[in-house]
Amino acid sequence: MIEHPSAQVSTAQLLPVLAEVKGLLDFLGLRQVRLLADRGFCDTEWMAWLRVCGWHYRIRIKSSLILAGCVGWARCGSPPELWQVVSDEPTSLETFAEYGQRFQIEEGFLDDKSGLFGLENSKLRDAASLERLVLVLSVATLLLVSKGLHEGARRRIDPHWQRGLSYLKLGLRAVQYALSRGQAVFTRLTLPGGPDPELPRTSKLPTPLITLEVG
């Protein structure tokens, strides 16, 4: 957490954080990385740093913006809602699917705020206090998401035909269900990699009018 006068944080402040993340991933032997970002991260210095790291990227930018040095870009939508994704690799229809994985974090934002934890309701304004609170929430998220991912009988705690709750909320319901019946909880803690095994209903985007152009 840093104290900052606005929500727009400069690349110079973001790169040390990303460098620390890279160090952790390198330590774990995870070097095949694809960074998915919104237009707030449209910065040539940022992209140059990613190339040096050997990381790939898919970044959404304004349709009117032209960037030099990008291997490919693809436009999506129809005026006035036209946007494009820039990439360090040649683009195809698969580029949109890759960028679309970014929307999975929206579940986390909702859970951190009004969906579950109510982080904004803490009214904390001190960066150090907020950092400690976020650490506690991160540990709770790790435990509950792991539990939600491994809840075999999902329909027992989520009545939707398709997943309608985040894995965090599924984990919380699974823990409450187990405790109410005297059952063991957190018998294992693992987070499998790969695509989301069961996309929620809200993650399915409408089929857009696509114009594909490769540069």
Gist?
It is built from 6 helices and 5 strands; from the N terminus they run αβαβββααααβ. It is an alpha+beta fold and 215 residues long.
Question: How would you describe this protein?
Answer:
With 215 residues, the protein is α+β, with helices and mostly antiparallel strands. 39% of the residues lie in helices and 13% in strands. It contains six helices and five strands. The protein has a five-stranded mixed sheet, sandwiched between helices. Strand 3 and strand 4 (81-87) form a beta hairpin. Helix 5 (127-149) packs across helix 6. The chain is globular. Residues 203-209 have low confidence and may be disordered.
What key attributes describe this structure?
single chain; 215 residues; alpha+beta
**Averaged pLDDT:** 81
Order of adjacent strands in the largest pleated sheet: 1-2-4-3-5
Biggest beta-sheet profile: 5 strands, mixed
How many β-strand runs? Answer: 5
Task: Give me the Rg, rounded.
Answer: 20 Å
Indicate the structural class. alpha+beta
Low-confidence segments, given as residue ranges, are: 203-209
Q: Strand share of the residues?
A: 5-15%
* Tertiary shape: globular
Helix content: 25-40%
Please count the helical segments: 6
Distance between the termini: 38 Å
Oligomer: single chain
The string of secondary-structure elements, in order, is HEHEEEHHHHE
